[in-house]
Amino acid sequence: MLSLADAQSRLSDLVAAARTAGADAADALYHGDRSTDVHVRLGALENVDQSEGEEIGLRVFVGQRSASVSASDLAPESLRSLAERAVAMAREAPEDRFAGLAPEDRLLRGSAPDLQLDDGVEPDPATLKEQALAAEEAARAVAGVTNSEGASASAGRSQIALATSHGFSGGYGAGAHSISASMLAERDGQKQRDGAWHWVRRLDTLDSPETVGRLAGERAVARLGARKLQSGPMPVVFDPRVTGSLIGHFLGAISGAAIARKTSFLLEKLGQAVFAEGITIHDEPHRIAGLRSRPFDGEGLPTAPSKLIDAGVLTGWLLDSASARQLGAQPTGHAARGVGGPPGVSASNVYVAPGKVSRDALIGGVKRGLYVTELIGQGVNGVTGDYSRGAGGFLIEDGEFAHPVAEITIAGNLKDMFLNMTAADDLTFRYAVDTPTLLVEGMTIAGD
């Protein structure tokens, strides 16, 4: 894996080669990573996986025609050939009046913020094995756990660098550390499975193996005795570990491409209330050691904190340069890309601001409802907002958990769900998308 300095130098040479080959403009992206993952089961080592790779991608423009190519051979002579091939491809491509690099006057200038994403720590396989074994041992010690699907510990590093022909060059590295465990519990002939995991950028913030393992075991045991519910309407409370997908549907609906293609259920909703008044959603790319923190976007534009939803009101779209041109707007610093193609968009560290009511009070106010800890399937229509997914969790009766629930479906429409959402005050930062416990009124349960 190249150093960041070497990667940026290689990218600058590649962009220059593309210009020499006839490109009017070009940008190039480098991505390198290495990782080690150790998996154990029933107290024994199952496998150790180690990987390392690097790729480079080039995007060239000839007039309003463009092409993207990628390669894993980073030798200078191979990259010169790559540049010539990309320009030849672009000359044969159809014209796209929205294609082009990001506006030069909006590029990140000066030093990028240090987000402390890379702690430089790479534990050896023996250390990772000890962590995985400790997690599984703690999980199997929970009364009711009868079998293990295993536990794992992993560590890795990645580096990203970007260069453009109109003056941007930058890069950053990021670390990754994780522990996970998955357990089986059994009682009266019924078996249930659940797990836990934690992923961080810096090792000193990773939960202990014992904490992760114990939680995995407790979750599996808590699901024993699960049964279906009678079909009908009821409020649904979403546990923070499953709400990322719920907010993810919102993020997809405000992507520039979806708006430009008119394929979003939030089309024409800019500046209007699309969530309940008590909901504010933040995008925080500069969070120290955040899972999706980044100093610049996939086109070299600076990133900045923003409110995507402000007291229920939709404030804007997520735009890369192409979708911004289509919509007559400016890019928002949300471009994201891999080495193999043009940019799309992505938010960074997203979170729903905490509400004013405690989790206990939120649940305590539910006469009869469902507390969801698991979502299954992808039954969501991004054009209409229709929502239908398999779910599991716990029945709420008179503000208390009654019994586990499984094999049911929850349904509604995201437009209505967002407007009938209440947030508790128990926000913690643990995932790429974080929320407090969320209550959604008026959903439909399909069970018995």
TrEMBL record:
Domain Metalloprotease TldD/E N-terminal: 26-90
Source domain of life: Bacteria
Residue ranges occupied by any Metalloprotease TldD/E central domain in the UniProt entry: 122-224
Domain Metalloprotease TldD/E C-terminal positions: 231-447
Any one Pfam family match given in the protein's UniProt record, by short name: PmbA_TldD_3rd
Entries under InterPro entries matching the protein: Metalloprtase-TldD/E_C, Metalloprtase-TldD/E_cen_dom, Metalloprtase-TldD/E_N, PmbA, TldD/PmbA_N, TldD/PmbA_sf
Family membership: Belongs to the peptidase U62 family.
Name under which the protein is recorded: TldD/PmbA family protein
Species the sequence originates in: Sphingomonas tabacisoli
